[in-house]
Amino acid sequence: MSFALLVYATGCNMERGTGERMVDLQHVTDDEDAQLSNLDAAISRNKQDASLYARRAKVLIRRQEYEKALSDANSAIGLNESNMGYLFLKAQVLRSLGKPNEALKLALQAERNSYQNASLYTLLSDLYLQLKQPNEAGKAARKALEFDPNNGYALYFKGKASAAIGDTTRALANYRLAVAEEPDLLEAQRELAGALVFKHQFEDAKPQLRKVKALLPKDGLVWFYQGVYYQLQQKPDSALWSYSQALKLADTLQVAHARTGILLYSRYDYAGAISHLEKAIEGNQKNIKYISALANAYERTGQNLNALEQYQRVIALQPDHALANQSINRLKAKLTRPVPFVRRDTIEYLQSR
């Protein structure tokens, strides 16, 4: 079950429709086409019933027809601005449309107006994580668990928040609990595998990786975690192959580019390292290890200006970095060294030899 379906399924009840000819949707729960058909008919008979638009929006979310769902959520809000459940519904849609800032604003507005439940705080936790605010994400997840202590999704996001601040022990514990409470939450299964790998619990990690690979064969992160597993097991060839599979599925996966780049750099494949480290640096602007490796790879391949720029970035982060300072002095001397004059007749003579 996706997160969008979670909030669809567990959100608090909206106001009930007042249209006396409203169909009983419970009888067509598993037939989304029938639901939509009945809702379309009901709305055509009663265009002032906000709950009908909200119900149709929920079905459209499940069908991933988010623009249509957004239109219906707006219609529900326009008809009943006081129902904070409709703001929550719109926040779900905006989250699915990749607009976390807008979604967060609405979710917080709903919370301030006393719309408080496990689903709202689970949504808030997810949004805060997307916006790289792990501390706030952790707080929201804990609030969700106050309403529902066994909420597998809240436990999952609490685990992600812990991982984001470097607390891998707590992250692992929460992923275990999330999987126990919500076995069908595949993202939790995947992150459990990753946490086991990073905690060097290889005996448990191996079967968990095998399991999630079967469940999510086209998930780039699964292959990335397998790559880390092999790398920590001192199997660089297998690690590189796994990372390559991860990047085939998700070329924007910067952690896979970073580890691939460092492995290739250690093998003196500087051109290969550059192609991956350039992509990794985009999300690692303060990682001296990656920046230094990229700088040295540039220098090794004769790209002195690029190398100088990267070494200067290292110094900006760590002014007393000895190697970077030495490299900058060396490159400046090389770049400012005058080009020796060579007579034309000498060049012609050399070309004739």
**What best-fitting shape do the alpha-carbon axes yield?**
elongated
Summarize model confidence as the mean pLDDT: 89
Number of extended strands:
0
Task: Give the SSE order as H and E letters.
Answer: HHHHHHHHHHHHHHHHHHHH
InterPro entries: TPR-like_helical_dom_sf, TPR_rpt, Ycf3
Keywords: Repeat, TPR repeat
Protein name: Tetratricopeptide repeat protein
TPR repeats: 50-83, 118-151, 288-321
List the helices and strands and how they pair.
Blueprint: H1 3-10, H2 32-45, H3 50-62, H4 66-79, H5 84-96, H6 100-112, H7 118-130, H8 134-147, H9 152-164, H10 168-181, H11 186-198, H12 202-215, H13 220-232, H14 236-249, H15 254-266, H16 270-281, H17 288-300, H18 304-317, H19 322-336, H20 344-352
Structure description:
Pfam families: ANAPC3, TPR_8. The protein has 353 residues and is mainly alpha-helical. It has a domain at 277-353: Tetratricopeptide repeat domain (Serine Threonine Protein Phosphatase 5, Tetratricopeptide repeat). It is built from 20 helices and no strands. α1 (3-10) runs antiparallel to α7 and α11 packs antiparallel against α12.
Write a concise keyword list for the protein shown above:
Serine Threonine Protein Phosphatase 5, Tetratricopeptide repeat; 20 helices; 73% helix; TPR_rpt; Ycf3; Tetratricopeptide repeat protein; repeat
